[in-house]
Design a protein that fits this description.
The chain is mainly α. It is built from 21 helices and six strands. Helix 5 packs across helix 8 and helix 5 packs antiparallel against helix 15.
C-alpha cells in the first residue's frame, strides 16, 4: 500500500531526527555514526519493527549517486591544498594502485575460496576497495586522535580520491560480465578517457565557480548556495555526459573552488557541510531500508571470511605495495592500512551489478554489506587503540578559525597598517576578494565618510576609503602598491 505524502514526510522526519540523536551516542562510544544510521534504516525496514516496505534498488542507487556527488564536493571544499601537497604522490598511489591491488587480491580470494569466477571475484574486490574518510575522522576527532608524519591528510586524500577508481572498475567489470566478448584490456582506454575528461572538467568548473561567485553580484545572499549547488550538479552531469568520471570532476572542482578566495566563503562552506551530512544520513537510511537482515544470515560465514581477508591481508598488502617507495616507516603504513574503513560507497556500488542483472549479484550485495559492517565494528572501534599501539599518535590540536567571511592566513606576528585608497589605485572600485591580496593580509576595517565598515569579501572599496590592514611586513609592502599606485601598460 502506497504511503501518503504527509505520512512519508512524517516518517522521514522522525528517522532523520532519530539518526541525529543517535550520532551523539556514536561520539561517546567511539563507533562511526554510519553504523547507527544503517541500523536505524534496517530497524525501520520491512523486516524490522518499523515495517516500512522498500526494495527499490534503482531508487537507492539514484539517491546514493546524488548524495555521493554532494559528499565528494563538500570533501573537496574542506581540503586544504597546502596540507595535501606534501602527500599528493602517496595519496594518488593509494587511491589508484592501492585500489587495483586490493581488487586483485580480493578477487583471487573470492575465486579460490568462495567459488566465484575471476571477473566476479574482481567485481567484489572493486566494490569494497574504496574507503570512507568521514567514518575515520569522525572517530579520530571525537577521541582526539592526532597522527604524526602527515598521516591524517594522507588518509583523507586517499579516501576522498579513491572513489572514482572504485566506480570505474565496478562499472567496467559489470559491463564485462554482461558482455563476455569484452576483455579487461578494453578498460584501459576507457580509464584514460574517463579520468582525463573528469579531471579537466573538474578543474575548469572549479575555476568557473570562483569567477561566477565573485562576479555575479547577487542581491540576496541566500542565492549563493543555490548557485553552487547548480554548478556542482552541472559539473557531475556534464562530465558524465562527455564520457568522463563525474565523481572525480566534482571532487576536483570542490578542491579548486575551496582553495580559492571567494565571497561568503565561510557561510558556503558551512552550508555544504550541512548538506553533506544530510546526504550521508539519507543515504545510509535508504541503504539500511534496502537490506533484508534474513538474507544476511546465509552469507554470514562467507562475509566474515571476506571481511577478515580484506582487513588483515588485502588492505595491508595494497598499502605496503602502493607506498613501497615512500619514506614512511612500517608503523605509519600499518596505521594507514588500519584506518581504511569501508562506508556507504561500497554498498552503493553493489547496486550496480544488482540492477544490471549480473548473476550472483544478490550474493555480492549481501557480502559487501556484511563486510562494511564488519569493517566499521572491527576497525572503527579500535583506531585510537591502534594509533597508541603503533606509536603513531601525537598530541591532538585544535585549529583556530577566523570569524570573517574572507579569511586569509594571518599570524600572531602580523602588523597593522592604515592606508588611504587613491583615485587611480588598482583597488579602487573593486571588491576585496578581487584585488589580489596576499594570503597573509587581511582588510580589518574600512572607514568611509566617517563611518566604519567591517568588510566582507564582497565589499567594494572606493577612492578615499581609509583601510586598516593586518599582515606581515612583506605582505603590507605588496598591498601598498594595490592601494596607492596605478598599473601602467608599457
Amino acid at each position: 500500500m502506497a504511503l501518503s505524502l504527509e505520512l512519508t514526510l512524517l516518517i522521514g522526519a522522525l528517522l532523520l531526527i532519530l539518526s541525529i540523536i543517535a550520532s551523539k551516542a556514536s561520539l561517546r562510544l567511539g563507533v562511526p555514526a554510519l553504523l547507527f544510521f544503517i541500523a536505524i534504516g534496517m530497524l525501520a525496514g520491512s523486516e524490522g519493527p518499523g515495517g516500512i516496505p522498500f526494495s527499490d534498488a534503482g531508487a537507492a542507487q539514484s539517491l546514493g549517486v546524488i548524495a555521493l556527488a554532494f559528499i565528494l564536493f563538500s570533501g573537496g571544499l574542506d581540503s586544504d591544498w597546502r596540507t595535501f601537497r606534501p602527500v599528493l604522490g602517496k595519496g594518488m598511489a593509494l587511491a589508484n594502485v592501492g585500489v587495483i591491488i586490493s581488487t586483485l587480491l580480493v578477487g583471487a580470494f573470492a575465486t579460490m575460496v568462495l567459488g566465484f569466477s575471476p571477473i566476479e571475484g574482481m567485481l567484489l574486490g572493486a566494490i569494497i576497495s574504496s574507503t570512507d574518510a568521514a567514518a575515520v575522522f569522525g572517530v579520530m576527532r571525537t577521541r582526539e586522535v592526532a597522527l604524526r608524519d602527515n598521516l591524517e591528510p594522507l588518509i583523507e586524500l586517499e579516501s576522498g580520491s579513491n572513489d572514482p577508481m572504485a566506480v570505474f572498475l565496478t562499472i567496467g567489470l559489470t559491463g564485462i560480465l554482461m558482455n563476455p566478448a569484452r576483455s579487461l584490456f578494453d578498460l584501459v582506454p576507457m580509464f584514460v578517457l574517463q579520468m582525463s575528461i573528469g579531471g579537466l572538467a573538474g578543474y575548469a568548473m572549479g575555476r568557473l565557480m570562483t569567477v561566477a561567485i565573485n562576479r555575479v553580484r547577487l542581491s540576496l545572499e541566500g542565492l549563493y548556495p543555490a548557485l553552487t549547488i547548480g554548478m556542482m550538479l552541472l559539473t557531475y552531469s556534464g562530465a558524465d555526459l562527455l564520457g568522463g568520471n563525474g565523481f572525480l570532476a566534482v571532487y576536483i572542482a570542490g578542491v579548486v573552488f575551496g582553495n580559492s578566495d571567494f565571497i561568503h566563503k565561510r557561510s558556503l562552506l558551512r552550508f555544504h557541510d550541512g548538506v553533506a551530512w544530510l546526504m550521508q544520513i539519507t543515504m545510509f537510511l535508504a541503504l539500511g531500508l534496502l537490506v533484508f537482515p534474513s538474507r544476511l544470515l546465509p552469507v554470514a560465514g562467507d562475509g566474515l571470511l571476506v571481511a577478515i581477508f580484506l582487513i588483515f591481508v588485502a588492505r595491508p598488502l595494497s598499502v605496503l605495495i602502493a607506498l613501497a617507495f615512500s619514506k614512511l616507516d612500517l608503523a605509519a603504513k600499518l596505521m594507514v592500512a588500519w584506518a581504511g574503513l569501508r562506508g556507504a560507497v561500497p554498498i552503493i556500488l553493489a547496486t550496480f551489478p544488482l540492477l544490471a542483472g549480473v548473476p550472483r549479484a544478490d550474493m555480492i550485495f549481501n557480502l559487501v554489506f556484511f563486510s562494511v559492517l564488519a569493517s566499521v565494528l572491527i576497525q572503527g572501534t579500535t583506531i585510537a587503540y591502534m594509533a597508541r599501539l603503533l606509536r603513531v599518535n601525537t598530541i591532538a590540536g585544535h585549529d583556530f578559525h577566523y570569524p570573517q567571511e574572507f579569511v586569509p592566513q594571518v599570524t600572531l606576528s602580523s602588523r597593522l597598517a592604515e592606508l588611504t585608497i587613491t583615485p587611480d589605485a588598482p583597488a579602487a572600485g573593486r571588491a576585496v576578494v578581487e584585488i589580489g591580496l596576499p594570503k597573509g593580509a587581511l582588510v580589518v576595517l574600512v572607514t568611509r565618510d566617517g563611518e566604519g565598515i567591517v568588510p566582507q569579501g564582497s565589499t567594494v572599496l572606493q577612492a578615499g576609503d581609509r583601510v586598516l590592514l593586518l599582515g606581515e611586513r612583506a605582505d603590507l609592502d605588496t598591498v601598498w602598491n594595490l592601494f596607492r599606485t596605478t598599473r601602467r601598460n608599457n
